[in-house]
Amino acid sequence: MIQQPISIDENCKFLKDLECKQSGVNVAMYNLICSKRDLKLFCKGIKPHRRWRLKDVKEYFGLFELNKKEDIKNALEMLYEIVNQ
Fold this sequence. Notes:
single chain; about 55% helix; mainly alpha; globular
């Protein structure tokens, strides 16, 4: 499957959190892993928890141009592979 490059906002909270580590824990990677899990559930029709919103995920990762939940899930999986290299 050919993946198109993703574009994220340069001023998003994810990139800011990725730069700094707080007490040895990378908050950005934790949020990325949890968001991947939550989006997999959401794509199957399960809301991860009561206050979870797709809008919050898009805002944190700077994925404003993507509208479909499957596209956002694929973008997060690609972002995880890029950051994990």
